[in-house]
Design a protein that fits this description.
Length: about 500
């Protein structure tokens, strides 16, 4: 709960800063400048993901496990951190070389001409900083330095505001590339300074030792990267199918619905995973502690997400009007069905990290990379083919329910983790309650519909809050915070 509250608070700060930055950028650069910046970043970020080779996520599991071992654990952890950094430097330089050589191609691909070749060559430096910074942040996360990780996200948002806006003011569109490079450098410098405080003395290491220690991290990261690549390809294929069957407007509607539902609770999942994953990895050799942590995380995520989903179902039309336009109101039913699918995602959330914590890269690849994406594409495509736009909502819900069943069975089969009792106590009652809330929205009488949804949302929120307070002594913690504040 502390980790979720910490990262939730920093995300609120980030959102406010980004709103201010977006407004100033819109004034200073206009639509043309914002488009140019977006095209630069749309080239940089996939290259960062590709040349990081998935190592930042893989190293969280590896370093957290090394830190938890008792005999020589700290020395082994230092050695692995040094090997990991060396591998990332090599990959970052390789990525920079590819970007320098391929700058004309990237310019032509993004803008249709080679007029931005020099800009892409300069952005090679930003690519290096982005790869190295992601690596340093992963080390902080593995060592469970959650406050530093949270502050790093604020530094990124505030740095982009304080560095970018003056450059845009004085240089206009020509300040975009320097702003990207300088912001990446500042954030990397902050993360590097924080990790140096944790590892003051790095062991001297030969390149053969670096390869020996780093190849395991690279192998695990490579499979994670492949799984992410399959996810991107699946999303591309689904968009192409929707475009061919229904047109570009349906693609835009689907992406809008997906964006609202994923961003709505995405911050919660990201905040919880930041602390949960390294903690889980550190307990992989403690069977009882490992299973206990998974069960506690299951209870926590269900009790937090269920009220948010109920609120999403209730306020879906309002969210569409605020975040989009009235043109997107046909998405109301789709968003409500996708909201129900979020609860399925919450039920799978604690189990999805089990294979990563154990370093089971082949299991992760076949389950997360192949099975989940093939299943999602097949279900969504069939539902869209038969029921059109509303079918995308039903497809998301059906896909989520299949995930709950398959993930539960597979984690019990391969890792011995049983969550059937938790599903009976939490998932099934909460899903039925949320289903009833969504069913009220179908009532033709608006007063009855919104009255029923409001009542169910209030009751569900109070019940979840009470259950949550029992488990984490929430009220006692709040009283302590208030008492401390008054004493100050």
């Amino acid at each position: 709960m502390k980790g979720t509250a910490l990262f939730g608070g920093t995300q609120v700060v980030n959102i406010l800063v980004n709103i201010l930055r977006g407004k100033l950028v819109a004034i200073l650069l206009g639509t043309l400048g914002m488009g140019i910046s977006a095209l630069y970043m749309s080239t940089l970020l996939p290259l960062q993901q590709l040349f990081s080779l998935g190592m930042p996520l893989a190293v969280v599991s590896v370093i957290a496990a090394a830190d938890a071992s008792k005999a020589g654990g700290r020395h082994l952890m230092r050695a692995k951190v040094e090997a990991y950094r060396r591998c990332l430097v090599v990959l970052a330089l390789l990525g920079a070389a590819v970007m320098l050589i391929g700058a004309p191609l990237f310019s032509r691909s993004a803008f249709g001409d080679t007029g931005h070749t020099r800009a892409f060559m300069c952005l090679a430096a930003a690519l290096v900083f982005l790869i190295l910074e992601a690596g340093e942040t992963a080390v902080l996360q593995a060592r469970r330095q959650m406050r530093q990780v949270a502050v790093r996200s604020v530094v990124n948002a505030v740095g982009s505001l304080l560095i970018g806006v003056p450059l845009y003011y004085f240089f206009g569109v020509r300040g975009i590339v320097p702003a990207i490079v300088l912001t990446a450098a500042v954030v990397w410098g902050y993360s590097r300074w924080q990790t140096r405080r944790l590892f003051l003395c790095q062991p001297s290491q030969s390149w053969s030792a670096t390869w020996y220690l780093g190849r395991g991290i690279m192998a695990l990261g490579f499979f994670m990267m492949l799984a992410a690549l399959f996810g991107n390809l699946t999303n591309y294929a689904l968009n192409a199918l929707i475009r061919s069957l229904g047109g570009v407007s349906d693609v835009g509607l689907y992406q809008a619905a997906n964006s609202i539902t994923s961003q709505y609770v995405g911050l919660v999942f990201a905040a919880m995973a930041t602390d949960y994953f390294p903690r889980l990895a550190s307990l992989k050799d403690d069977r009882e502690g490992f299973h206990t942590l998974v069960h506690k995380e299951y209870e926590l995520v269900m009790l937090i997400v269920a009220p948010l989903v109920a609120l999403l179902i209730l306020t879906a039309p309002l969210l569409i009007r605020v975040l989009l336009t009235t043109e997107f109101l046909p998405l109301t039913g789709v968003i409500r069905l996708m909201g129900l699918a979020i609860l399925c995602k919450a039920a799978c959330f604690p189990l999805d990290y089990v294979s990563m914590a154990h370093g089971r890269k082949r299991y992760f690849f076949w389950m997360e990379g192949v099975w989940c994406n093939v299943k999602t594409f097949a279900v969504m495509a069939l539902c869209y083919y038969f029921w059109g736009l509303q079918g995308l909502g039903w497809g998301a819900l059906l896909s989520g329910l299949i995930d709950v069943v398959v993930t539960t069975v597979m984690t019990h089969w391969f890792f011995g983790i049983t969550t059937s009792r938790l599903q009976i106590r939490f998932f099934i009652p909460l899903m039925l309650s949320l289903g009833a809330c969504a069913a009220f929205s179908l009532c033709p009488n608006a007063v009855v519909a919104y009255g029923g949804m409001t009542l169910l949302t209030a009751v569900l929120s109070l019940v979840c809050l009470r259950l949550l307070a029992r488990r984490v002594n929430l009220m006692e913690w709040l009283r302590g915070k208030l008492h401390f504040g008054f004493r100050r």
